[in-house]
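Lecture 7 notes: from sequence to structure.

We start with a single chain of 277 residues. Read the sequence below before looking at the structure.
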Amino acid sequence: MKGSADDMQTFKSRDEIKIEETWNLKDIYEDQGNWDKDYQEVLKMTEKLKTYDGHIKSAQDLFEYLRLSEELGYIYNKLYVFAMLQADLDTRVTSSQALLDRAGKLGQKISNASAFFMPFLLSLEEHTLKGYINEIEGLKYFEEDLLDSFRYKAHVLTKEQEEVLSQIGEAFSAPQKTFGMINNADIKFGEVTNEDGERVELTRGMYSKLIEDDDRDKRKEAYFAYYQPYVQLKNTIASTLSTAIKNNVNLSKLRNYPSALKNPYLEIKFQKRYMII
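Now the structure, written as tokens:
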């Protein structure tokens, strides 16, 4: 399999790529001003979400909380996807990383504001919850998720403990973010020889073609140019992985999981998705 001369050029910036081959993020938000507007709206909705802590006393209260939470989640997902895609345009652009960081911190605020809900829900008797669902027609929309929550009861902590976990959630995700920046922004691949005999910097796109080339020497050159930078950073990457593993082990202990490899919550989601329950 031979790559064309165009395939073997150096990395192109977004400005050098045909506009029809790029993402059009204006399909999500026309401009930064509209993103900021929704950001402020989510902040207000998050504050309102917190007011339900200790004040869900009826089926109507429960329905209003769930409806607000779902609406908030929809807008937040839109905000986050835009910020994530914006950052992915060029992971070296600090302003885009800052926008993604704002979106991430907003998600943390939402998590903190809603941390009370699962302990509250599981404090109800199941027959009480079913009574609420029968009382308000709109709650039938949420019925499956509400009742499924009881399958996770053994792993839900007290309200205070859930609040603490939500506050340190960003710290738990730090290893993943660190590796993401190494892998997508800081990593610099070696050089390979293009069709004209010139030395050019390897890109991921070039690697995917060269590693399937008929010429064994080209495959070997591409392989070492691609993986050598990771070898040079092996201690940093290993430390990041070690921290991630420790985080998973500690979280599994806190939530009374059988092990760090066995997450009952994800098992339930998997079973539902593939209809094996």
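The domain at 188-232 is CATH 1.10.287.830 (Helix Hairpins). Keep this in mind for problem set 3.
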